[in-house]
Amino acid sequence: MQQHVAARALVVRDEIMIIKCPICDKRFPENDAEAALPFCSMRCKMIDAARWLNEAYGLPEEKMHEEPDWEEE
Ligand SMILES: [Zn+2]
Fold it and tell me: How far is the CA of 20 from the centre of ligand 1 (A)?
């Protein structure tokens, strides 16, 4: 019965989740003051944003259908 109490205390302590940063794979507690969830820091958050932008602009361009400019008559 005493053991049951101890087990519950352990569960409470485990409620702080350890998160793995998707950018640098660093593990950090979710309540880390430096964290910018789900990233370990603002720096990794910015890296992710930059990657996302690169992907947005880096898409292979489909053949651009050129619209005729001013039609000269
Ligand atoms: Zn990171």
Answer: 8
pLDDT, one tens digit per residue, over 10-38 is 455 567 889 999 999 999 999 999 999 99
Range of the domain at 49: 13-57
Q: Are 26 and 47 in contact (CB under 8 A)?
A: no
What is the 25 CA–ligand 1 centroid distance (Å)?
6
What is the tally of helices (H) and strands (E) in the chain?
2, 2
Residue 47's domain is classified under what CATH number? 3.30.50.10
How many A from CA of 41 to the centre of ligand 1?
A: 6
